[in-house]
Design brief:
The radius of gyration is 22 Å and the shape is elongated. Helix 6 packs across helix 7. The strands form 2 sheets. It has a 6-stranded antiparallel sheet with strand order 1-11-4-3-2-5. The chain is α+β, with helices and mostly antiparallel strands and 250 residues long. It folds into 2 domains: 114 residues, Translation, Eukaryotic Peptide Chain Release Factor Subunit 1, Chain A (2-Layer Sandwich), CATH 3.30.960; 124 residues, 2-Layer Sandwich (Nucleotidyltransferase, domain 5), CATH 3.30.420.
C-alpha cells in the first residue's frame, strides 16, 4: 500500500490526467458516514465483478480504514478495469454517495475542492498561540501572543512542589487567555471547519475553557496539524496542510 499526501495543485493535475485517460473506470464517491459500508454493498454489472472485488478488498485494508478514520472526509475511488487505481481522501467531506461507470467522474471532487470554505485555525504550544480565520486562500483574521510558563523545577522537595503548583496556575491562566482570544475572533463567525495544531494534549483542556470550541465541537476536525511553532508564519503555512489530500494506491 502506497500513501502520499499531495497539494491541491497536484491533485488538480492528477484529475486532469484521469479525465483525459482512456478506458473504462468505476468511480465511487463515498461520504464519511458511509465508508466503507457503501463500498461493501456495491453491486454492478457482472463485467465489473473483478473490479468490485478489488475495490472492496482495498477499501477494507487496515491502512485505508485508519487513514479514512483520521481524515473523516469520506473517499473518492477511481478504478480502471486495467490500469489506474486510486483512493483519494480529500481535505473536506464528500457530500453524497455516488457511482459512475465509463469515463472518470471528477465533478463532485472538483466541486469539493473549489468551494471557498471559512476555516478557523488554532495553533497552541505552552507559552505561545496563533488564532486565525481563512476565507478561501486568504487569512482575514489573526491574533498571536505569548504567555509565561515556568520551566520544570528538578531539585525536588517542597521547592519542586511549589514550582509545580505555580506552573499549573500559569498554564490555567494561559489557557484562559487563549480561550478568550478564540472567542473574540470566532464569535459571530460562520465557520465551516475548525482545525487545531501544535501540542495535541492542550486541545481537551482548552476546549473546556473555550465556549466557542465547546459549542462548535462538531466543526472541529480530528486531524491535528503538525505545527512546531505557534506564530503568524505557522498560521500561514497551516493552510497548505489543511488542503492536502491523501492518495492511496496498491
Amino acid at each position: 500500500m502506497k500513501k502520499e499526501a499531495i497539494s491541491k495543485r497536484k491533485l488538480y493535475k492528477l484529475l486532469g490526467q484521469l479525465e483525459s485517460s482512456r478506458g473504462d473506470y468505476v468511480t465511487l464517491y463515498v461520504k464519511p458516514s458511509s465508508f466503507p459500508h457503501y463500498v461493501n454493498l456495491l453491486s454492478l454489472d457482472p463485467k465489473y465483478s473483478e473490479c468490485v472485488d478489488e475495490i472492496k478488498q482495498l477499501a477494507n485494508a487496515k491502512a485505508v480504514i485508519q487513514a479514512a478514520e483520521k481524515y473523516e472526509t469520506g473517499a473518492v475511488i477511481f478504478w480502471q478495469t486495467s490500469g489506474n487505481k486510486y483512493i483519494v481522501l480529500p481535505p473536506f467531506p464528500i457530500s453524497d454517495n455516488k457511482v459512475s461507470l465509463g469515463k472518470p467522474d471528477i465533478s463532485l471532487l472538483q466541486e469539493t475542492l473549489e468551494r471557498k470554505y471559512t476555516i478557523g485555525v488554532i495553533l497552541v504550544a505552552w507559552g505561545s498561540y496563533a488564532v486565525g480565520i481563512f476565507r478561501g486562500d486568504n487569512l482575514v483574521e489573526s491574533k498571536t501572543g505569548t504567555g509565561y510558563i515556568h520551566k520544570e523545577h528538578k531539585k525536588g522537595g517542597s521547592s519542586q512542589k511549589r514550582f509545580a503548583r505555580r506552573t499549573e496556575e500559569q498554564k490555567k491562566d494561559f489557557l484562559r487567555k487563549v480561550a478568550n482570544r478564540i472567542d473574540e475572533r470566532f464569535e459571530n463567525q460562520s465557520l465551516d471547519y475548525i482545525f487545531f495544531g501544535g501540542n495535541r494534549l492542550i486541545l481537551r483542556p482548552l476546549s473546556k475553557e473555550c465556549s466557542c470550541l465547546e459549542s462548535q465541537a462538531s466543526k472541529t476536525c480530528t486531524r491535528i496539524l503538525h505545527a512546531r511553532y505557534a506564530d503568524r508564519e505557522a498560521l500561514h503555512q497551516s493552510l497548505n496542510e489543511i488542503t492536502m489530500s491523501l492518495i492511496l494506491t496498491e
